[in-house]
Amino acid sequence: MRGIDPAVLLSYSWFCVAAASHLGIEVTKSWALRKAEKERHTLLRAVHIYKKHRVQYEIRTYFRFIHLQRLTESTCDTYLEYIERNLPEGCALKVTKVECQKMSEHLTPPNKD
Amino acid sequence: MYKPKTLNINNNAYVRTIWRLNSTAIGAVKDTEEEEFRVLDILKKKQRQERKTMKRADVQPDRADRMAPDQNWGNVWPGPRSFHPSSVPLPIRQGYALKGAAPPGKKANAELMKIPNFLHLTPPVIKSQCEALKQFCTEWPKLLNSNEAIEKHYPVEIITSDYCHGSPSIRNPLARIVTLRVKLSSLELDKHARDKFLRLIEYRYDEETDLVTITADRCPMRKQNLDYANYLLTACYHESWAFEEWERDKTEEDMEYYDWDKNASKRSLVQWYYRFQGKDLPEDVDYVGYDISEIPNGEQYKMAVNNLFNEGEKDETLLEYTKAVRKLFGLPDLDVES
């Protein structure tokens, strides 16, 4: 999750963990980076000339991560829909799904003719 | 003006006005001493003042004061909503506190109103909502407890990413990327097929974790990328099992591992052995097929040189090589430094 307010992210991650525990999903890890990612812009302060006088702006992005394990497909979809609907303002979510599949039947050595 | 002499008790304005209204000479000359001077108000300041001090109608008592402590909060705050102080029965204070003063209260507090609140997601509400969602969820199979079991039955991993933003569109071009991960040991390959497979996939193989990672992002749809990744894996697999005619031209320099039997090291060992024995080398000696068991400690030397080339120059391999050479030449062993 990424957002502009670490307190909001903390509350949201608390909500995610609570929802996961109610639905029976294993929460392995929930952590946050200590510092935010700051994007700084240094612009001219005046409209015309005055190159030596600048003004600096920065955009701070805070991050938070949650690890979930042992989810079935339907549980995963239900949980994700619930989480995404309750995403607060000023936050964005990136969900990485690792899906385990059986080996396809094509991957067998050819018969020796 | 007619004035009855008997009604001279209270010469107040009220009595005077009553009689004035009832008298016939109402438009007559008014008595300026008894009345106030009417002030001309061009800018209408008096009316403006009256309008400014408009008093609101009676404000109803807060809904929060009439709330019972055991009410169902989920009914009061069903969805995400900006903070409304009269509906929240909590004495919250937020904001910068001057020295000696408390932080500002909840009424008309912009700081409380502008932040996103989670009043619609209190623990009992989450619990009830999850109970309702449980009918759509399935349980994880109990036998797939450990990672090994999962890997054994489901070796192929497909990694995809979903993105949720607060923007007008739900599309994100990064969501089409698909990564396929599989362990090389779970694929059935013989020696030649494994070598060919590794050469085909080049950089996508990680030796430490034994994982083949195929990333597909050239198609616009996730499904297309998934099919393409599967196709790549299948194609490489079947190609590696096929033997082409031009593969016979593989020279010693193309070999991915070091084979001692086919290299100069064996030749030099055999030549040295013959010189050591004092015998002459026969002319057509087959170096590749020469049996080293005749040379004492030859096997150890062979293993040491093989390890040196295949595993790289490490302390252990160098030590083994020195030991093997010493034994071969009959020199005393190295003193083991404790």
Automatic annotation (TrEMBL), chain A:
GO cellular component: mitochondrial small ribosomal subunit
Domain of life: Eukaryota
Chief localization: mitochondrion
InterPro entries: Ribosomal_uS10_dom (IPR027486), Ribosomal_uS10_dom_sf (IPR036838), Ribosomal_uS10m (IPR040055)
Keywords: Mitochondrion, Ribonucleoprotein, Ribosomal protein, Signal
Subcellular location: Mitochondrion
Entries under Gene3D superfamilies matching the protein: Ribosomal protein S10 domain
Keyword Cell division: no
Domain (Small ribosomal subunit protein uS10): residue spans on this chain: 1-96
Record's signal peptide: 1-19
Protein family: Belongs to the universal ribosomal protein uS10 family.
The protein's name: Small ribosomal subunit protein uS10m
Organism: Eumeta variegata
TrEMBL record, chain B:
Listed GO MF terms: structural constituent of ribosome
GO terms for biological process, alphabetical: mitochondrial translation
First and last residue of the signal peptide: none
Keywords tagged on the record: Ribonucleoprotein, Ribosomal protein
Composition-biased stretches (Basic and acidic residues): 48-68
Residue ranges of the region described as Disordered: 48-80
GO CC aspect terms: mitochondrial small ribosomal subunit
Keyword Repeat belongs to the record: no
Domain Small ribosomal subunit protein mS35 mitochondrial conserved: 172-240
Pfam family name, one: MRP-S28
InterPro entries noted in UniProt: Ribosomal_mS35_mit, Ribosomal_mS35_mt
Protein name: 28S ribosomal protein S35, mitochondrial
Organism: Eumeta variegata
